[in-house]
Amino acid sequence: MVEQTNNVPSGYGFEVVEFLEINLSNLKLKKKNKKTKVGFAKELLTNGARAKGVKKERVREHAENILNGKYIPSYEPPIVERIEGTDDFQVLTGENRKKGHDVASQRDPKITTMFCAVVKFTKEKIKVDGITNELTPQACRVAKQSTENKENSNYVDDPRDIEDILVSLSQLQDEGVFDLEGEEKEVNKRINLVLLNLLEVPTQDHKRIRDKYYVIKEKGGLVAVKDYDPQEKKDFVKKYYPHITISTPKNPIEQDGVYSQIKTLNGGFNANDQVPNGALHDLDYDPRLFNDGCFILSKYNFGFKEVQFITGIGGRNSQEVEKLRDFKQTDMIKYHYERCLRIVCDVEGIDIKDLKKLSDPKKSKYNPMEQIEFKFLPQIQGEDMEKFVDE
Fold first, then answer.
1. Is residue 224 part of a domain?
2. How many C-beta neighbours within 10 Å does residue 280 have?
3. Are residues 195 and 322 in the same domain?
4. With contact defined as beta carbons under 8 Å apart, do 259 and 252 qualify?
5. Which residue has the higher pLDDT, 130 or 77?
6. Do the domain assignments include residue 223?
7. Is 207 found in the same domain as 97?
8. Helices (H) and strands (E) in the chain, counts
9. Minimal CA–CA distance to 342: which of 330, 355, 333, 329?
10. What number of other Cβ atoms are within 10 A of residue 155's Cβ?
11. Residue 317 clears pLDDT 70, i.e. is over it
């Protein structure tokens, strides 16, 4: 297998210790940080290079290749670090491949391992523009995680995009590799050197990335985001919400008047047209979710007082996830309720003002704005669990 890869991982501040076939159960995509006030540890992604999480289609492709005997790590194998005092390893690169193996193993129990390069990170001194800088082990990890997916690689099937680079750049600033203090010309020069030497970004892209970096830093910056597959959502509910029983429309289960279901949410489309990317409205999932909630409240009104959707935001960066959470929780249900009223008015030839006088949701059989709620999954790197887990 080492010969088949034909490429030993290289980069700043690490050495390859050995190549191993490692049990999937011993490969960890998250690591524990400090305890929070409710007793849960922050769970940080070990690979923070993806602004919007893994690509589900890439995971499926890897799974199919593994099941069909076509998977060969033809470029660098995933790199991992041993977790001291355990048999476990932190996955630093190759999250799509790890999840692909997990999916494949669910369909074929004989698939139990993944071939990896075990590495060890240390500090490293580098000289850039005549100045010697010392990189922390974490800074070296960030650089490697980003450059493994650089755009001009002959092997990468899921290259990084500009938001991925911005996330890595922000992490390197946090690690003290550069700062934004001083004259604009000097700051630009520092960022250019980091982009060129650590993140291996082509020179022609530097200004575009710098300009976007200044904008996102003013808005709070970007950090890595976790995306959940269906099984991960179920596992999270089982672990952190053990008192909740998950329902489906065909099998509704009442718990203290609450109906709970796992759902997927996205952003992506504007309410009035098909652009822009990152807008608040999703013209596919949003109406379906609204209709599903109303169906449950209407059909089972005497049993359910509330519909609770447990969900994450798919395919969005950290700033977009926060905006979408707020929109879905406060405005999305109301928007689709009023949209239904407008449709009735158009069909019946009624002025919407007259219909609103007759339609008081507080006096109705049920009120979707008050009876459809969301429980969001933690997705943004470093979020405290107490925001999401009931005490």
1. no
2. 19
3. no
4. yes
5. 77
6. no
7. yes
8. 13, 12
9. 355
10. 11
11. yes
What are the backbone dihedrals phi and psi of residue 209, each rounded to the nearest 5 degrees, phi first? -70, -40
Find out whether 144 and 12 touch, Cβ atoms under 8 Å. Answer: yes
Domain residues for the domain of 314 are 230-387
Helices within the chain (DSSP H only): 2-5, 56-67, 95-107, 137-147, 162-174, 184-197, 206-218, 230-240, 285-299, 318-327, 333-348, 352-358, 368-371
Task: Decide if pLDDT at 316 tops 70.
Answer: yes
Q: Per mean pLDDT, which range of 176-185, 187-196, 265-274 is the poorest?
A: 265-274
> 135, 29, 14: which is closest to 83 by C-alpha?
29
Q: Which CATH number characterizes residue 207's domain?
A: 3.90.1530.10
Please tell me whether residue 121 adopts helix, strand or coil conformation.
Answer: strand
Predicted local distance difference test score (pLDDT) of residue 14: 92
Please identify which residue in the block is written with the tokens 């999954």. 377
Q: How far apart are CA 367 and CA 365, in angstroms?
A: 7
Residue whose entry in the numeric block shows the structure tokens 């850039």? 128
pLDDT of 237-290, one tens digit each? Answer: 888 888 899 998 888 888 888 999 999 887 665 544 443 444 788 888 889 999
- Distance of alpha carbon 383 from alpha carbon 99, whole angstroms: 22
Classify 134 as helix, strand or coil: strand
Pair (136, 235) in one structural domain: no
**Position 372 pLDDT exceeds 90:** yes
How large is the average pLDDT for residues 354-370? 73
Given a cut of 60, is residue 190 above it in pLDDT?
Answer: yes
223, 381 contact by CB (below 8 A): yes
**Residues 262 and 302 placed together within one structural domain of the fold:** yes
d(CA 328, CA 351): 28
Which pLDDT score is estimated for 108? 95
Q: Which residue has the tokens 């990170």?
A: 121
